[in-house]
Structures are given as structure tokens and as C-alpha cells.
Amino acid sequence: MNEEEAGRIVGLYRRHAAAWAAARGTEPGVEAGWLARFAALLPPKGMVLDLGCGPGRPVAAHLASLGHAITGVDSSPEMIAMAQAALPGHDWIVADMRGLALGRRFDALLAWDSFFHLCHDDQRAMFRRFADHAAPGAALMFTSGPSHGIAMGRLGGEPLFHASLDAAEYRSLLAANRFAVQAHVANDPECGGHTVWLARRD
């Protein structure tokens, strides 16, 4: 049943896009410290691929305010429409990150509170997608769970799927795809309990 819930994520975020965006807000909150660490690895006017960008605020908008060029990808057309309205000077694409093949490489890749909605096997496959879109020296930041398993939350009164591999497997997948871990904190108390990975392509 939980694996079936993973397949309902796209529809769930489409139905609740406006409510989710309103609740998320427009300014960085607990993620501000990690965004600063991520941005410190970017070159001036870096090209950022934001996977699961949602409505473009607050994360993409914050990076854009620092002078970076954003390519945002989200499977929800409703989310992408909001991102285009908020940040019209950037590139917004309706697509599923699991099949992404843009034929371009970026200075940084971000999957904040999006990657962890994929099932275990889809997460494993994403590391090749990350590598295919990463320029030499590119930063990669994503959120996961603290240990292997599945957790169910709620969005708009409906079940919301989350999954995670264990830390050792994430480290192995990163290394196999030539990403070196720069920082990792599980259940970070300074980030609302997020488990965060920051890595860099060699």
C-alpha cells in the first residue's frame, strides 16, 4: 500500500498546489543555513537545476536573488505556473525528475523536500540522473530520511509518501557517481529536523 502511495504523489501536489504554496511561504525559513552552504559552492551567476521546484518560492527565488540562473523542474503544471509567475526570467519545465534528460550540465543541483517522495528504487536510479546533469565541481544538495524505511505524512488530509535509504547506501551511490560528501546531518535540529546531504561532483 505504501508503495502505491508513491505513485499518487504527482496528483496529490496538483490537487493541493495552491494550499501548499500558501503554507510554504515566500522567504527561506529553517533551510536558510543549508542554502547558504549550498550557495557558497556556486560560481557567480551559476546555473542551478532545481528538481521538484514547486512554486519557485522560497528556495529558487532566494537563489535567483543571489544572481543565479534557475532551471526548475516539477511534475505539477500548477506549481510550474506559479513559479513562472513569480520568477519569469528563469526556465520552468513540467517534467518528472525520474525521466529527466535535458542534455545540459549545471553548476548546482538541488532536490529539497522532493527527492524523498520517490520510492527506494527510483531514488537509487536518480543518482545517474544527477551525474548526467552535473558539471565538474557541481554542488548537489538533497533531503532524505535519517534511515532506511518509509514514512507517511499528510497533505490536504491525504496520505503523503516519503522514503529513505540508509546513510551508507547514499554515501555509496554518491561515490559511485563521483560526488564527494561535503556535509551531512541527520535530523538537523537547526533545520527543523531535516536530514540533509551536501555533495560535490569531482
UniProtKB/TrEMBL annotation:
Keyword Methyltransferase tagged: yes
GO biological-process terms attached to the record: methylation
Molecular function as annotated in GO: methyltransferase activity
Keyword Nucleotide-binding: no
Keywords for this protein: Methyltransferase, Transferase
Span of domain Methyltransferase: 48-137
Entry-linked InterPro entries: Methyltransf_25 (IPR041698), SAM-dependent_MTases_sf (IPR029063)
Protein name as annotated: Class I SAM-dependent methyltransferase
Species whose genome carries this gene: Neoroseomonas marina
